[in-house]
Amino acid sequence: MTTRQSIKRWNIGIFVLLIAGFVCLGVVEGVALPRQDQQEALYNEAQNNPLTHDITRTASFATPYMGNAAKVSGLFQSLPVGPIRSFALDPDEFTVQVNLDFSVPMAEADRDRAYLYSATAAFAYIDNLEAVIFNQGSAAYRVTREELLHWYGVDQFSSLTTNSATWQAAVQNKLTDREYTRQAFQELFHESETLSV
């Protein structure tokens, strides 16, 4: 009898463990994973907006030379500049041209914000980059490292990327002011010819 009772208890214990396992699996599959997927989707969506972009994910593309096409391409793809068709690099002038796909037009305020944010990040993470051209097809806008350094009142862009809090205070938070971004675009981004390379 004691053997029969211990086997019965053993079977009940296994049954209880199986039920608990199924309940835990249901919670993980039905609640935790969907919540995690939703948070990841929201985070990825936030990366398309200069106001919510996480600059730390761009740091891995830092390079001392703009000739490193893989790093330059990865950097701009990680930035909230809009849909990119292609790139052109001019190593003689240390210039990157970002050819944008503007089949879906961007509002002026969004454009100003995206260009200012993306150019600042590009100069911060590509050490020898001297100019960026944003080519919209119908118009191209050029900004230089020197002008942007003067705009921020710093000697080096590395001072803006020491940590994410510094970046947010010096660059990102200011983008909420539409007048600030409009003025930056008017003063810094000059209509330009596209690269012929």
UniProtKB/TrEMBL annotation:
This is DUF4825 domain-containing protein. Residues 62-138 form the DUF4825 domain. Pfam families: DUF4825. InterPro entries: DUF4825 (IPR032250). It comes from the Bacteria. It comes from Paenibacillus barengoltzii G22.
